Predict the structure.
Amino acid sequence: MTTQTTAPQTPSTPAKGKPSGLIGIPENLGRTLATGGGILTVVSTFLAWTWTDAFPGDLTVYGYPGGLQVLVLITGALTALFGLASYGVKGLRWLTPGSADSAIKLAALAAFATAWFTIIAISVNLGGLANLEPGGWVVAIVTLATVLGALSLPFERPVTEPADPDDTDWEQFRHNTRNKLTVFKAAFASSEVTPARKLPAYAEILIIVAALALGLTVFTYGIGTEYDELFVGFMITVGFGFAAVTKAGLVARVSAITAKHRNVTMIGAFVAAAAFPFTQSDDQYATIGVYILIFATVALGLNIVVGMAGLLDLGYVAFLGVGAYTGAMVSGSPSSPFDIHLPFWASALLGAAVAMVFGVLIGAPTLRLRGDYLAIVTLGFGEIFRIAVLNADGTSGPDITNGSNGISSIPNLNIFGFDFGQEHSIAGFTIARFANYFLLMLLITLIVVIVFRRSGDSRIGRAWIAIREDETAALAMGINGFRVKLIAFALGAALAGLAGTVQAHVTYTVTPEQYQFAHVVPPNSAFLLAAVVLGGMGTISGPLVGAALLYLIPAKLQFLGDYQLFAFGLALVLLMRFRPEGLIPNRRRQLEFHEEAEAPTVLSKAGA
């Protein structure tokens, strides 16, 4: 009698899918299409796209790209360069230390989206496709061929689980859709960035200078777009272009260099920002610049409360109002109930101190609360502040703030004989009122950045992070949670009050309507919180970038009329869905949001 034993069967790990593209074109042909299409896209921008100059930008000239053609030229050049780098062309391989194929796909999509948006805009504005010149047809066909070639480049297809046959048709449809989205996302996945060879310190500093100069150029171009179609095309180009450069690995390379030279990067960034008023021919865009800085500075203060300490504050704009009203009352304004005119340094310190006192008074009884309860209390404080200054008009309450009329006729600042309301010539450049305040606000932003950076690196900063991550564990380790949170609340309030003292002089008038929870025009509590979350909580550059976008985009989307906030809200929803960690995330938060990508198995109803 023989006994037959059967070895236990172990589930086999499915192999990765065979590399292939989203479109069934051979790889060699697809790469040639993408690279050659990028070159032809550049050439097509030197042709006329329409016969009349009625369309903004004058796209009727041969041999001289203008308006949206310049943006298409840039995206076409990016596609061609990434394509040549993928062939291993000597001298271009440094362009793609990450994923060359993903960079090609996104750059091709940038050229396609910008070019086809322009063609559609010409047809809509001028009344049909008959208004296109041969150059318009050429760029449409070439960019379409380019994106088809790019999408045919192979990638590692992820292994997906088949739908359960016992599921309903709707559940199977959802499951299959998720699988397709997984495959689509894998087509644009980035690969590990190869380490760069060691460069001398001066070369790394030159790279930082070049990156900052490029950033200043992009910002200046975006803020100076003269018509709606150009701004929309600019946003398409910047969005896809930045994604392409990120997938190529260039952003990671530059970030590694800036991390080694943090002080040089910070000084260079503020020097580049200070150069902005000198790039403008008038005060029109310096106005937007100074309001962006006010918004960004307050958002950075809120980042201490929300991003570092993890306290959800929905009434933060009230501290900005406290500083603004304090600065207005001691500015010598005829509307002020106090006949006091303090110098700016004294009013700035007083505004910050009064806001800090309010922060302590509000925080002391409420910071023992957590989560939603704390958010509701801070929301109530913001509304109480607005209603209190509205009623302090001498009728419903004491005559302190002039009620709904606010404090008006706030004089311009005069610091050491420098009148901020007058034009001045510096090194042959003439800067006007808003440019003067832009430079002053930039100095205050620098102070806030230094405070944020030093606080984050200190013992109290690490205590904030511990409280944010797990308050119960932090308390068990001996951290005085109430004291630590109160310090964060008071410091954030003081920084907002400091910015408020400048805002009072910039706007000439301080009224209660400026400090609501939600309003079409920032800054308000909702927009401030959105700027921190959108940019990236816990970082310095995140809230600055988020505030700039949240102020600039609504100002440029006014042509949408009643649909402006709808489009803006939709864009925020999509961004939070696909990049919840923010545009410039903290590394820890990025891993928290994307830790599922490192899971070794794929779970389904059947298990692992």
Remarks:
- Strands lie at 414-415, 418-419, 424-426, 429-431.
- The radius of gyration is 28 Å.
- The CA atoms of residues 344 and 415 lie 7 Å apart.
- The chain has a mean pLDDT of 83.
